[in-house]
Amino acid sequence: MNAVLIGLGMVADLHADAVAATGGDVRLAAVYSRNSERACAFAGRHGGPRVLDSLDDIAADPTLDFAILATPPDARAPYISMLARHGLPVLTEKPLARTLEEARALVETCEVANLPLGVLLQHRMRPASLVLQTRLAQGDLGEIATVELRVPWWRDQSYYDAPGRGSYARDGGGVLITQAIHSLDLMVQFCGQVADVQAITATSPLHQMEAEDFAAAALRFRSGAVGSVMASVTHYPGGAEEIILNGTAGSARLAASRLIIHRHGHPPEEIGTLSATGGGADPMAFSHDWHRAVIADFADALRNRRQPAITARSALPVQALIAAIERSARTGQRQEVADG
């Protein structure tokens, strides 16, 4: 299948490498950037895909099967709406949109057009995450009672010196929607939607930025479980994100790509190994394997006329949770989490 990559910023090389790693199932056929010089240089590094000069060229190209959208968040809604009008499926970087309302509108636009829209929440595709999802479905931990999520990441000030980064206008927020969204999404996939939150957020003296670089929240899940969240880019030099689930039949600790399960009456099990996650000063210090898995699945879904593994609609619950955490921090009051 032929893909066009739209947006050639920080994450674009990883996308190109991920496409190349699909073994020919997906081909990077074209690229587009508003900066034509950057587009030509990028194409030269990645096997010479065609450089398209305009969005009209994308819309008019019958050889393209889908678009990979890697623009900043503030540019995604116009691109997705345009591509939906022209019937080109889209696999977009996270977050789907800057706000829950904007995300819902994009989902509805593509569903009305009967057009597949996927989101690169690639932590779902880590082997250890898939194993934990299966074990939870089998009931191996029993009923989940308490949950703990920690994202002790680090970003240098130079990261936020890029124009618009860490702002509401461009990114939709700070650590919650840009970094912690992956772990928050996994937590919701594992434990179901959150009912209400009580939260604080802050911009620490460690960064000059508009949005938050630290967030903490107490959660009550719709299942009755309770939990806590700490998300930060203030933890130098940065560590692995971690989700701990405590159930009536055992517990699980998922630290990046390593899973440890303790079941009552059974020896501990360890699945996977701890690997780089992009949680330090270099945000791109992680494998492209998980992106490859999402891209390959999206192409296979188009080929076989099925839903992709990570649909845009399935990304709405985490955006609803982030919106509620931000609301609670602003008001100082507990907030209900809207339906995703």
TrEMBL record:
A Gene Ontology molecular-function term?
A: nucleotide binding
Q: What Pfam families is this protein classified in?
A: GFO_IDH_MocA, GFO_IDH_MocA_C3
InterPro entries per the UniProt record, alphabetical: Gfo/Idh/MocA-like_OxRdtase_N, Gfo/Idh/MocA_Oxidoreductase, GFO_IDH_MocA-like_dom, NAD(P)-bd_dom_sf
**Domain Gfo/Idh/MocA-like oxidoreductase N-terminal intervals:** 2-118
Which Gene3D superfamilies does this UniProt record tie to the protein?
Dihydrodipicolinate Reductase, domain 2, NAD(P)-binding Rossmann-like Domain
Which residue ranges does the record assign to the GFO/IDH/MocA-like oxidoreductase domain? Answer: 133-252
Which named protein is this? Gfo/Idh/MocA family oxidoreductase
